[in-house]
Amino acid sequence: MKTRCAVYSFLLLILWTLCVLLLVRMKHSDFTEYFPPRASSENIQLFHKYNINCLAIYDMDPVEVGKSLVIRRKPVGEYKEEHLINLTSNCPLFIKSRGYDDVCLSEEEKGFPLAYSLVVHKSALMVERLIKALYSPRNIYCIHYDQKSPALFISAMEGLARCLPNVFIASKREFVFYASVSRLQADLNCLSDLLVSDVKWKYVINLCGQDFPLRSNIELVSELRKLNGANMLETCRPSEYKKHRFTFHHKLINGNAKYEKLLVKTEQVKTPPPHGIEVFTGSAYFVLSRDFVVHMDSSVVVKDFLAWSEDTYSPDEHFWATLVRLPGVPGEVPRSQPDITDLMSKTRLVKWEYLEKSLYPPCSGTHVRSVCIYGAAEMRWLLDYGHWFANKFDLMVDPIIIQCLEEKLEEKQKLFQPMASHTCHED
């Protein structure tokens, strides 16, 4: 792995050198050739499409990656919630202009519906593009928006749910505070709603607003079939540092701003977990089978463990990782089995700044709290690494990586469908 990262790092170094030279040469040039005119009323676009060659981006062509850097320095327009609100005020126009009425499904996809729990709080256009990249009329999508979200964002999410029959807003919504149980409860609210829906989904996947898929729907269906009822998520024995997150009582205190609350550790030691549960740690991200979620929803042990976890730090980062290790649960990961790390689980590819150059090539975007927000130059690495989803993406940091991933996923969806089934038609 280190050799592969070293090769990527070397290629990126060469690439960035060439890109800098290109930027210097083009510093005073007219960049309008990279920005095609806005779409006409006959061809309504929800977002700007850049004149960029994504195949060349994938091949790490220095000139084309240089163009993406120019675009990042001079983005077109703003990504306002009003754009989505305006378009979803006319649902037939929204559905047609975004291609939701022109989704081709294989027989395999029709027989294997998926469910999604989306816990989001900002960037409505990014949420819509995430749903569109994953969209199948046979799937079902639950949106949980933070009760603290701006009114325009909430209106945009409600517009999505109004226009798309298989997208809905969680019936119960939380005020979500960082590292508190509210983040976990948001997913649990969606899971409860998804269980009573008419769609008999096979697996559920949770996402946040800065995630994006690296596999098309038909590829995900193929991969999930191979799991054969097993669950996919990170689950590891906790370090001494992480043990402090659940061995001490934590409490929310008021911050300086309205709706701001901070979770702080106290010196009060918690009682051991109920039912002799051994705690494992992981992340908030999961891929869970329907049987597992049904079991969890009716289990007294799970309910007791949730209650015990309410005053811990980031309970979503030990709750799921522990539950899949419980003896007898559907898709159980035995406690004796070795750790399943974030690089082994395919649920989410996250690039941590302190592990760059040793485990990953350098971030070509920017960092927020030590997490890389991806840039266009990472397209090949993202698609080739093997994970199903990645985090984080931001239209304001680099819109090209998102546009190019969309193109690649559409291409792969069309490529794999004829291989999976000889019949493919609109549904």
Automatic annotation (TrEMBL):
Coarse class of the protein's main subcellular location: Golgi
One Pfam family in the UniProt entry: Branch
Pathway listed: Protein modification; protein glycosylation
Keywords per UniProt: Glycoprotein, Glycosyltransferase, Membrane, Signal-anchor, Transferase, Transmembrane, Transmembrane helix
InterPro entries the record matches: Glyco_trans_14
GO MF annotation terms: acetylglucosaminyltransferase activity
The family this protein is said to belong to: Belongs to the glycosyltransferase 14 family.
Subcellular location: Golgi apparatus membrane
Coiled coil: none
Originating organism: Zoarces viviparus
Statement: the UniProt record of this protein carries the keyword Transmembrane helix: yes
Protein name: Beta-1,3-galactosyl-O-glycosyl-glycoprotein beta-1,6-N-acetylglucosaminyltransferase 4
Protein topology in the membrane: Single-pass type II membrane protein
Record's GO cellular component terms: Golgi membrane
